[in-house]
């Protein structure tokens, strides 16, 4: 096999490897893009869940304040009834 033939085979292999590298790079970029989109979507859902939890906590705190206020009013009424 002559030097020119060896060089031609080597060039063919280099081109093949170059194509493989390009394919891998493209595949990695696509996967990173999909991963980025998935992470953004999950963060968006997490933000929504946190907002919902904040609203639920506010409702719960409001109910507890109302309950404690009603309990205090009842205790004051009972104490005033006993004292007077």
Structural description of this entry:
Helix content is 96%, strand content 0%. It contains one helix and no strands. The protein is rod-shaped. The model has no long low-confidence stretch (mean pLDDT 96).
Distance from N terminus to C terminus (CA atoms, Å) equals: 120 Å
What proportion strand?
under 5%
Rg for CA atoms: 36 Å
Number of helices: 1
Tell me how many strands there are.
Answer: 0
Helical fraction: over 70%
Mean pLDDT, rounded to whole units? Answer: 96
- Low-pLDDT windows of residues: none
Morphology call: rod-shaped
**What is the string of SSEs from the N terminus onward?**
H
* Main sheet makeup: none
Find the structural class using helix and strand composition: mainly alpha
Task: Please describe the topology of this protein.
Layout: H1 3-83
Provide the descriptors you would attach to this structure in a database record.
mainly alpha, 1 helix, rod-shaped, 84 residues
In short:
The chain is mainly alpha-helical. The chain has 1 helix and no strands. It is rod-shaped and about 120 Å long.
């Amino acid at each position: 096999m002559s030097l020119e033939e060896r060089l031609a085979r080597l060039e063919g292999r280099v081109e093949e490897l170059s194509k493989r590298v390009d394919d891998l790079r493209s595949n990695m970029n696509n996967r990173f893009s999909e991963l980025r989109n998935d992470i953004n979507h999950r963060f968006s859902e997490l933000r929504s869940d946190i907002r919902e939890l904040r609203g639920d906590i506010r409702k719960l705190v409001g109910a507890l304040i109302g309950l404690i206020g009603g309990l205090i009013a009842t205790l004051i009424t009972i104490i005033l009834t006993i004292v007077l």
